[in-house]
Amino acid sequence: MKRTPEQLRSHRWFGPDTLRAFGHRSRIKQMGYALEEFQGRPVIAILNTWSDIACCHTHFRDRAEQVRRGVWSAGGFPLEIPVTSLAEQFQKPSAMMYRNLLAMETEEVLRSYPIDGAVLMGGCDKTTPALVMGAISVDLPVIFLPAGPMLRGNWRGRPVGSGTEVWRAWAERQAGKLSECAWRELEDGIARSPGHCMTMGTASTMTAAVEALGLSLPGASSIPAVDATHGRMAAACGRRIVELVWEDRRPSTIVTPSSFDNAIITVLALGGSTNAVIHLIALARRAGVDLSLERFDALSRMTPVLADIQPGGRHLMEDFYYAGGLRALLARVRELLVLEAGTVAEGSLGDAISGAEVHDSEVIRPIDRPVSPSGALAILHGSLAPDGAVIKAVAADPALLRHRGPAVVFEDQADVEARADDPDLPVTPDSVLVLKRSGPIGAPGMPEWGMLPIPRRLLQAGVRDMVRISDARMSGTSYGTCVLHVAPEAAVGGPLALVRDGDEIELDVPGRRLDLLVPDQELRGRRADFTPTVPTGLSGYGELYVRHVTQANLGCDFDFLARRADVREPVIH
Ligand code: FES
Question: For residue 410, what is the enclosing H or E element?
Answer without folding.
Answer: strand 402-410
